[in-house]
Write a structure and sequence with these properties.
This protein has about 325 residues and is mostly helical. It has helices spanning about 25-50, 55, 60-85, 95-130, 130-135, 140-165, 185, 195-230, 235-260, 270-290, 295-314; strands at about 10-15, 95, 175.
Amino acid sequence: MEPGNRTPVTEFILEGLPNTRELPSLFFLLFLLLYLLTLLGNTLTLLTVLCDPRLHALPMYCFLGHLSFLDACLSSVTVPKILAGLVGPGGRAISFGGCVAQLYAFHFLCSTECFLYTVMAYDRFLAICHPLRYSVVMSRKTCLWLAAGTWLTGSIHAMIQAFLTFRLPYCGPNHVEYFVCDIPAMLKLACANTAINQVFILANIGAVVAGCFLLICVSYTYIASAILKIRTAQGRQRAFSTCSAHLTLVLLYYGPPVFIYLHPSSSQASDGVVAVFYTAVTPLLNPFIYTLRNKEMKKALRKLICGQTLSLHA
């Protein structure tokens, strides 16, 4: 297309998830149930932490509250648009500005969660490897600064990704072969050479993912060494139980993004299925994996529910 004939795109059409248009009603009910359970589980987790003064003062549960809020927001960025697309063709349309906002929010929440998992690994490292210094090093002030730092760095990272993606001209096809405005799908629609953008974007994402994952691996190397030095089996089991939930979530969270962004030549269909797992399924699993396996959280949750029940009958 000649430069003078280019018409800027003002609206994009999200193609949605593959193989869902044959049974839209079934998938609508499935994703609606998934979304409602995600909001319910993460809201209960957040309220449990906020309403229990003892949990609210402990760094591990403070970070868990941030994680629950992030998961509820991440699911809200993606799933409602999937539901709208399943209702009818009009629901798949998204304005240019809306696409920019969705891409920014998507990467903001994902990268913030990535940084938060790293901070949570550091918290477990201090608790197990340096228990006597834990309360001094991981003070209330330090905990708040670390939590705020994850949100700030996530915002900066997302700004870089959004700027690099939408500085390109979009003037041709507007059908996004994905269920969300994300970088690989958007670059395919740009009316310019995207090679340099792909290098910078992959380098930025790779540095964040690899850096965070490396720090988590280093933390767990020290944690594993400390646990093996515990003489009693009961002590080792207790120490490992405080890390098992976090380690499970880390593996569930890091696998899909690595598959998508480090394999740019893979099909959008396979990418969509993998991405749904960490944007819709993992946020649902987090409350069950992290909360229901924790005795303190279960005790506080029962106290919260029983307290609300008693207040209603009073």
